[in-house]
Specification:
CATH class of the largest domain: Alpha Beta
Shape: elongated
Mean pLDDT: 76
CATH superfamily of the largest domain: Major capsid protein gp5
Helix content: 25-40%
Strand content: 15-25%
Largest sheet: 5 strands, mixed
Order of helices and strands: HHHHHHHHEEEEHHHEHEEHEEEEEEH
Low-confidence stretches: 124-130
Number of strands: 13
Number of helices: 14
Length: about 425
């Protein structure tokens, strides 16, 4: 057999065009075969054996070339079957880095410059250490041996009270929340007041005093961590969780602002309604608070109350035990009502909303990785909102914190 004939056979059997290195490799085998066929049978067989051993190596025992090739083909098929799943971008990146590290060795072997064995170690860690794994996000699942199953995609979540910041106080969205909010605040009523004076008399000196005050920005934030498997297997649930997380941050912001207002607002100091009501109720407590604000020239328009205190205003009876229903518009006229568990039972907050100023940022969400999360297929989402709350000293008279039990005692008419 001639070299050219051997190459023709190889080219016709090849599924794609042979490269230059493959042509050279097969050509060297063809030359050796061509030389071997010029000798007698014994010498020819000996030379062919040497060709096979020189080009392909020595096989152990009684293995044939065909047998070895078939075994290799079987192993290749097994590997292909195991890797039917497409690699994701992270896995492709790791594989590319592994191949880059072995680039020189691979090129040397392809150019027949080296016969040293080589291997690539390619590891992927699929286990996750984050809180949100498929086992913790969805629990209680069991195998159902029945095809008649309906998957209800609506999820049931924990209920929380509505936020009140936007509707209750003078709040506005800004692009950048200032770290410090400074303002001039009148310290006292001043010295001297204008009055009627006779001709030629001295006019009273009126002196006003102001002082600088400031508030500092706060940040309300949190984070969630989840695995890549959760994002792939529960795509819609992942989106719902991210939305719920956003609401968690906003609720923390709402609760923080409310807590600051509660700490700032003064307590009930007494009004003309004290000791005038035979059987005072929560409605009378609210009216007493409104009167206190009026005494300082403020008008209450916002009421924050615990559900249990609110329920007491809805369950009234007459002297015969018959239920009495009074609409909120009649019970609390002119007031925006906020019923929330963020205020303790037995405490009511009442005030004029416009005198409290607040600036806040958009809800900010960021996604990234830290530590070993990249190689552990985990992600972190951070959510935050910035807020600066202006609570002035003088205008705190426009709000009042009512301890229901204490005010009821102050209002109750003494028995003779």
């Amino acid at each position: 057999m001639k070299k050219d004939d051997f190459l023709k056979i190889c080219r016709s059997a090849a599924k794609s065009q042979l490269s230059d290195s493959e042509e050279n490799f097969l050509g060297s085998i063809g030359e050796a075969i061509e030389g071997a066929f010029k000798n007698d049978q014994v010498e020819r067989n000996k030379q062919l054996s040497e060709i096979v051993e020189g080009k392909l190596g020595v096989f152990e025992g009684s293995e044939t070339v065909a047998g070895v090739i078939r075994a290799l083909a079987t192993k290749v098929d097994d590997v292909e079957n195991k890797f039917k799943r497409n690699l994701n971008e992270q896995e492709k990146s790791v594989l590319r880095k592994a191949l880059e590290a072995k680039k020189e060795e691979i090129l040397k072997i392809a150019r027949h410059q080296s016969t040293s064995p080589w291997q690539i170690e390619f590891k992927l860690k699929r286990a996750a250490s984050a809180l949100m794994t498929t086992a913790t996000v969805v629990t209680g699942a069991t195998a159902i041996n029945n095809d008649n199953v309906f998957d209800d995609m609506e999820i049931e979540v924990i209920r929380y009270p509505k936020n009140f910041i936007i509707d209750a106080i003078a709040s506005r969205l800004v692009s950048i929340v200032p770290q410090f909010w400074k303002w001039k605040e009148q310290e006292t009523a001043g010295v001297g007041v204008p009055t009627a004076v006779s001709e030629g008399s001295e006019k009273p000196l009126v002196d006003k005093k102001f002082v600088w005050k400031s508030s500092e920005r706060k940040k309300y934030a949190g984070r969630i961590e989840f695995t890549e498997e959760v994002e792939m297997d529960f795509q819609q649930l992942s989106l719902d969780i991210i939305n719920m997380f956003e609401e968690d941050v906003l609720r923390a912001y709402n609760a923080g602002v409310l807590a600051d207002i509660l700490a700032w607002a003064p307590s009930y100091a007494g009004t003309a309604l004290d000791l005038t009501i035979t059987k005072p109720t929560v409605m009378n407590v609210v009216n007493a608070g409104k009167l206190q604000l009026s005494n300082y020239n403020y008008a209450a328009d916002t009421l924050v109350i615990n559900p249990s205190d609110y329920a007491s205003t809805q369950n009234m009876q007459n002297v015969n035990g018959d239920p009495i229903f009074i609409p909120d518009a009649v019970l609390f006229p002119g007031l925006r009502l906020f019923v929330t568990n963020k205020i303790d039972a037995g405490t009511i907050l009442l005030g004029e909303g416009s005198i409290i100023k607040e600036q806040h940022s958009n809800y900010i969400v960021r996604q990234g990785v830290y530590g070993n999360q990249f190689i552990e297929n985990e992600k972190t989402i951070v959510g935050e909102i910035f807020s600066n709350l202006k609570l002035t000293t003088e205008s705190k008279k426009g709000w009042v914190k009512l301890d229901v039990a204490t005010v009821l005692g102050s209002l109750k008419k003494l028995q003779n």
